[in-house]
Amino acid sequence: MAYIEWTEDYATGINAIDEQHKRIIHYINQLSDAKNLNESDLTEEVLLNLIDYTLSHFAFEESLMEDVAYDASDIHIKTHDAFRDKIDAYRKRHETGEDIANELYKLLNIWLVEHIRNDDGSYAPVVKTNIPEINGPEKQGWIRSKIQAFFK
Fold first, then answer.
1. Considering only CA atoms, which of 77, 86, 76 is closest in space to residue 106?
2. How is residue 113 annotated by DSSP?
Protein backbone atom coordinates (compact mmCIF):
# COMPACT_ATOMS: atom_id res chain seq x y z
CA MET A 1 0.00 0.00 0.00
CA ALA A 2 1.26 3.40 -0.91
CA TYR A 3 1.50 6.44 1.29
CA ILE A 4 -0.70 9.42 0.56
CA GLU A 5 0.35 13.04 0.92
CA TRP A 6 -1.84 16.06 1.52
CA THR A 7 -2.18 18.26 -1.54
CA GLU A 8 -4.11 21.46 -2.02
CA ASP A 9 -6.52 19.45 -4.20
CA TYR A 10 -8.02 18.20 -0.93
CA ALA A 11 -8.28 21.66 0.66
CA THR A 12 -11.67 23.17 1.41
CA GLY A 13 -10.16 26.53 2.24
CA ILE A 14 -11.47 26.29 5.80
CA ASN A 15 -8.37 25.84 7.93
CA ALA A 16 -10.03 23.96 10.82
CA ILE A 17 -11.67 21.50 8.42
CA ASP A 18 -8.50 21.02 6.38
CA GLU A 19 -6.50 20.24 9.52
CA GLN A 20 -9.12 17.65 10.49
CA HIS A 21 -9.06 16.15 6.99
CA LYS A 22 -5.29 15.73 7.21
CA ARG A 23 -6.00 13.18 9.93
CA ILE A 24 -7.66 10.97 7.28
CA ILE A 25 -4.40 10.93 5.36
CA HIS A 26 -2.57 10.02 8.55
CA TYR A 27 -4.99 7.12 9.09
CA ILE A 28 -4.54 5.93 5.51
CA ASN A 29 -0.78 5.92 6.00
CA GLN A 30 -1.11 4.10 9.32
CA LEU A 31 -3.19 1.42 7.57
CA SER A 32 -0.45 1.08 4.99
CA ASP A 33 2.01 0.48 7.82
CA ALA A 34 -0.37 -1.95 9.53
CA LYS A 35 -0.71 -4.01 6.38
CA ASN A 36 2.98 -3.91 5.46
CA LEU A 37 4.01 -4.88 9.00
CA ASN A 38 1.09 -7.26 9.56
CA GLU A 39 0.16 -5.26 12.68
CA SER A 40 -3.43 -5.96 13.66
CA ASP A 41 -3.07 -3.71 16.72
CA LEU A 42 -2.30 -0.74 14.49
CA THR A 43 -5.40 -1.47 12.41
CA GLU A 44 -7.41 -1.50 15.62
CA GLU A 45 -5.87 1.82 16.67
CA VAL A 46 -6.89 3.34 13.33
CA LEU A 47 -10.43 2.01 13.75
CA LEU A 48 -10.75 3.51 17.23
CA ASN A 49 -9.39 6.81 15.97
CA LEU A 50 -11.83 6.76 13.07
CA ILE A 51 -14.74 6.23 15.42
CA ASP A 52 -13.62 9.28 17.42
CA TYR A 53 -13.00 11.21 14.20
CA THR A 54 -16.45 10.50 12.82
CA LEU A 55 -18.08 11.70 16.02
CA SER A 56 -16.15 14.94 16.41
CA HIS A 57 -15.37 15.94 12.84
CA PHE A 58 -18.79 15.16 11.42
CA ALA A 59 -20.50 17.00 14.28
CA PHE A 60 -18.28 20.00 13.60
CA GLU A 61 -19.05 19.99 9.88
CA GLU A 62 -22.76 19.53 10.50
CA SER A 63 -22.74 22.42 12.94
CA LEU A 64 -21.09 24.64 10.34
CA MET A 65 -23.68 23.64 7.76
CA GLU A 66 -26.47 24.39 10.21
CA ASP A 67 -25.00 27.79 11.07
CA VAL A 68 -25.00 28.84 7.41
CA ALA A 69 -28.30 27.10 6.55
CA TYR A 70 -26.62 24.97 3.87
CA ASP A 71 -29.46 23.67 1.68
CA ALA A 72 -27.96 20.23 1.02
CA SER A 73 -27.07 19.47 4.63
CA ASP A 74 -29.60 16.62 4.88
CA ILE A 75 -27.88 14.75 2.06
CA HIS A 76 -24.47 15.47 3.53
CA ILE A 77 -25.53 14.21 6.96
CA LYS A 78 -26.89 11.00 5.42
CA THR A 79 -23.49 10.48 3.79
CA HIS A 80 -21.84 10.93 7.19
CA ASP A 81 -24.28 8.46 8.75
CA ALA A 82 -23.52 5.87 6.07
CA PHE A 83 -19.78 6.30 6.63
CA ARG A 84 -20.21 5.89 10.41
CA ASP A 85 -22.16 2.68 9.76
CA LYS A 86 -19.39 1.36 7.49
CA ILE A 87 -16.72 2.09 10.09
CA ASP A 88 -18.79 0.32 12.74
CA ALA A 89 -19.19 -2.71 10.46
CA TYR A 90 -15.42 -2.80 9.93
CA ARG A 91 -14.91 -2.59 13.70
CA LYS A 92 -17.19 -5.58 14.25
CA ARG A 93 -15.42 -7.61 11.57
CA HIS A 94 -12.03 -6.71 13.02
CA GLU A 95 -13.18 -7.82 16.46
CA THR A 96 -13.88 -11.28 15.05
CA GLY A 97 -10.28 -11.48 13.86
CA GLU A 98 -10.90 -10.59 10.21
CA ASP A 99 -8.16 -8.66 8.42
CA ILE A 100 -9.92 -5.54 7.18
CA ALA A 101 -6.86 -3.32 6.60
CA ASN A 102 -6.99 -3.49 2.77
CA GLU A 103 -10.69 -2.75 2.58
CA LEU A 104 -10.49 0.06 5.11
CA TYR A 105 -7.52 1.53 3.24
CA LYS A 106 -9.53 1.54 0.01
CA LEU A 107 -12.59 3.00 1.72
CA LEU A 108 -10.59 5.86 3.21
CA ASN A 109 -8.97 6.61 -0.13
CA ILE A 110 -12.36 6.75 -1.81
CA TRP A 111 -13.70 8.87 1.05
CA LEU A 112 -10.77 11.25 0.75
CA VAL A 113 -11.27 11.78 -2.96
CA GLU A 114 -15.04 11.57 -3.29
CA HIS A 115 -16.39 13.00 -0.08
CA ILE A 116 -13.77 15.55 0.84
CA ARG A 117 -13.19 16.87 -2.66
CA ASN A 118 -16.77 16.78 -3.88
CA ASP A 119 -19.21 16.85 -0.97
CA ASP A 120 -17.18 19.01 1.38
CA GLY A 121 -16.10 21.12 -1.56
CA SER A 122 -19.73 21.98 -2.18
CA TYR A 123 -20.52 23.34 1.29
CA ALA A 124 -17.18 25.09 1.92
CA PRO A 125 -17.92 28.06 -0.38
CA VAL A 126 -21.25 28.60 1.41
CA VAL A 127 -19.48 28.62 4.78
CA LYS A 128 -16.76 30.98 3.54
CA THR A 129 -19.38 33.34 2.06
CA ASN A 130 -21.53 33.40 5.19
CA ILE A 131 -18.65 33.37 7.69
CA PRO A 132 -15.97 35.26 5.75
CA GLU A 133 -13.71 35.53 8.78
CA ILE A 134 -13.74 31.74 9.34
CA ASN A 135 -9.95 31.54 8.95
CA GLY A 136 -9.15 34.78 10.73
CA PRO A 137 -8.00 35.21 14.32
CA GLU A 138 -11.28 36.86 15.27
CA LYS A 139 -13.08 33.60 14.42
CA GLN A 140 -10.85 31.40 16.53
CA GLY A 141 -13.04 31.96 19.58
CA TRP A 142 -16.07 30.81 17.60
CA ILE A 143 -14.26 27.72 16.36
CA ARG A 144 -12.93 26.96 19.83
CA SER A 145 -16.43 27.24 21.33
CA LYS A 146 -17.83 24.92 18.63
CA ILE A 147 -15.13 22.32 19.29
CA GLN A 148 -15.58 22.57 23.06
CA ALA A 149 -19.34 22.10 22.67
CA PHE A 150 -18.73 18.62 21.25
CA PHE A 151 -16.68 17.53 24.24
CA LYS A 152 -18.89 18.70 27.11
1. 86
2. I
